[in-house]
Specification:
Pantoate--beta-alanine Ligase, Chain: A,domain 2; 2 domains; three-stranded antiparallel β-sheet; 37% helix; binds pantoate
Length: 293
């Protein structure tokens, strides 16, 4: 496995690869969900390329960027174990110029008006910009993203289509801990005494999935169930919403439609923000345990 610590070094290594490239962009602090993204990329392409870059332009809170976990040696070992051919490990200066502000940004309109886009201004502009830069540098044939970040995946799909990147975008199912908590690098920062409570988000969402599938369509009442579920466990709800699975728009007022919706929510466990989503037409993930409180 080669580690490229500059764009030039990466490009030289990339030029030497023959066959197709499967790309997994990451911000490091790799965990089992990344490993499953690596597996998907390996299945679909001849070579696996991973980038590790904590992208400053997608953080709306300085403390979130400062506390973002990192584990260089552990990350490189996971990439090695997955059979990665090249790990691209740039610095912010390399990615964003030498002392002057970057003047070009990529924005995917409308899809970023909702959910995390509404509560994290500028976040998706940072994501679309860095992913565009990484696509231009890495030149992959296939790129794999987790469905846990449902809105990010929708935005990247749209951007890839709109900007004519010849890249197949794969969405990989959300990896979950045994108690259903969606696996995330941020989970490393959840204080041990709050870790159990964090599972209240996926459970509250799972209970609402059941009610919806049984015919409940009152959006405010279902959202209130989720708020009550997480607040009772000591979490603070950031948002909960039901949106169209393709456009991410909120449906018109009145009873919720009977198909085509995603339930998405974010909550704070102490200072740590966790997110989750359930496609309401899909089956409930087996690890979401509705019998637990
Ligand atoms: O999902 C992530 O880890 C990041 O948003 C990504 C896609 C690597 C861009 O920085």
């Amino acid at each position: 496995m080669k580690i490229a610590e500059s764009i030039e070094e990466f490009r030289a290594l990339r030029r030497a690869l023959t066959g197709t490239v499967g790309f997994v962009p990451t911000m490091g602090a790799l965990h089992s969900a990344h490993v499953s993204l690596f597996e998907q990329a390996n299945q679909r392409a001849d070579h696996l390329v991973v980038s590790i870059f904590v992208n400053p332009t997608q953080f709306d809170r300085a403390e979130d960027l400062d506390s973002y976990p990192s584990d260089r040696e552990g990350d490189l070992q996971k990439c090695r174990d997955a059979g990665a051919e090249i790990v691209f490990y740039p610095t912010p200066t390399m990615m964003y110029g030498n002392g002057r502000d970057q003047l070009t940004y990529v924005e995917v309109h409308e899809l970023d008006n909702y959910l995390c886009g509404a509560t994290r201004p500028g976040h998706f502009r940072g994501v679309s910009t860095v992913v565009t830069k990484l696509f231009n540098i890495v030149q992959p044939d296939v790129a794999v993203f987790g469905q846990k970040d449902y809105q990010q995946l929708a935005i990247i799909r749209q951007m890839t289509e709109d900007l004519n990147f010849p890249i197949e975008i794969i969405g990989a199912a959300t990896a979950r801990e045994d108690d259903g908590l969606a696996v995330s690098s941020r989970n490393y920062n959840i204080p041990a005494d709050k870790r159990e409570a964090a599972a209240s988000l996926n459970r509250a969402m799972g209970r609402v999935w059941v009610k919806y599938r049984e015919g409940a369509r009152d959006r405010a009442a279902l959202a209130e169930d989720i708020r009550a579920g997480v607040e009772t466990a000591g979490l603070r709800l950031d948002y909960v919403d039901f949106v169209d699975a393709k456009t991410l728009q909120t449906p018109a007022d009145g009873p919720l439609p009977g198909e085509g919706l995603v339930l998405a929510a974010a909550a704070f466990v102490g200072q740590v923000r966790i997110i989750d989503n359930l496609v309401l037409d899909d089956e409930l993930p087996p690890k979401i345990d509705l019998s637990a409180k």
